[in-house]
Amino acid sequence: MNVKAGNFMIRLTGINVRGFRLLEDVEISVEASSTVIVGRNNSGKTSLTEVLDRFIGDKAGQFRLEDFSASLRAAFISCRTQRVQDNAPASVLLDALPTISLDLTFSYEAAGDLGPLSPFIIDLDPDCRIAIARIEYAPALSGVGDLLDLPIPAEGEAIVEGAAEPEAPLPADPNVAFFRHLRLQIPNC
Length: 189
Prior knowledge:
189 residues, alpha+beta, five-stranded antiparallel beta sheet, 5 strands, 25% helix, 22% strand, globular
């Protein structure tokens, strides 16, 4: 992908995705003429197009619990445990909570006015012709409590964590209620 900014050519040369669905840590080189993404079913091709759409397309900022790599679920549980058992402050938990990130690597021909890429050029090396833009989806400090704390039941209401209804049997996984809560909270935090 080439973009002309003034008299300068800017080219996307690499994409790195971390923490999104099947793309736990994937780096893709983008060729100058064309790049073809080929893979078996359930290998991450659709995830690549979706992560781009979630960061820079029509669905920008619209993330869900299911968008986080399955391997990151344990980090959510760990943070919840620290919050409940150790009363860990939100500022400590913020760094431990999972994130989804997209790094876009650009190359450019010459220094000068590079249009929308200019704010990303902070290298003091005048011979450097590479810029990396990182976009990250992470909770805000103010949203950590909303993300990790389950709602307090109203007076007289008995809610068993993990039960769909007060009289329902406990699910096999005690974190079911927490993940239901995350499913509702992640789009807002």
